[in-house]
Amino acid sequence: MRILMLSQYYPPEPMRLLSDMAQSLQSLGHEVTVLTGFPNWPTGEVYPGYRTSLRKKEMMDGVPVVRIPLYPDHSKSARKRAMNFVSFPISACTFGPLFVKRPDIIHAIQPPTTCFAAWYLSKLWNVPFTYEVQDMWPETLSATGMVGSQRVLETVGRFCKWAYNKAAAVRVISPGFRENLLGKGVRSDKIHVIQNWVDTDLYKP
What we know:
This protein is an alpha/beta fold. The chain has 6 helices and 8 strands; from the N terminus they run E-H-E-E-E-H-E-H-E-H-H-E-H-E. It has helices spanning 16-27, 78-99, 114-125, 139-143, 150-166, 175-183, and strands at residues 2-6, 31-37, 56-60, 63-68, 105-109, 129-133, 169-172, 191-193. An 8-stranded mixed sheet has the order 3-4-2-1-5-6-7-8, with helices on both faces. The protein is globular and about 40 Å long.
């Protein structure tokens, strides 16, 4: 199966979980490509050795990674953070069809704005997309104090419900997340609890 992993973040950002997933799927015989942004999290500055351009292709542990431009930011400014979250899906919609092959399935990883690009590309290529939920939105925006406006939180909540409904399947990382989505009206048959894993050679007592 040809799988496109669509994620705003990917190593060398501290996202080893995602590279583990890509490499594991590759080892099972799937053809995996990652479409992501230029690394800038958590500092908000593009990493040394990288320079923002329209495209950068690299091979990371046997997995093709295609990087596309975004607005790098991890400040406390709600406006700049919004620009960061919105810039990646716009870039993915624009450059994805040009820089990656048509996949059999798209796996979108948070933030939920990535789902818009996954939905757009899925319609363009006539393939399904799945959605991975590592944080509950809009709850995390409220809990961290990033967004205080109830109107904005409600708008984000409506968008997230739209994304859950459009996805062919939704992966959550805990039973509590599953209950949260059930409470939001997401069909139980499309919610799959797959807890995060850990490299026991790296993390051990």
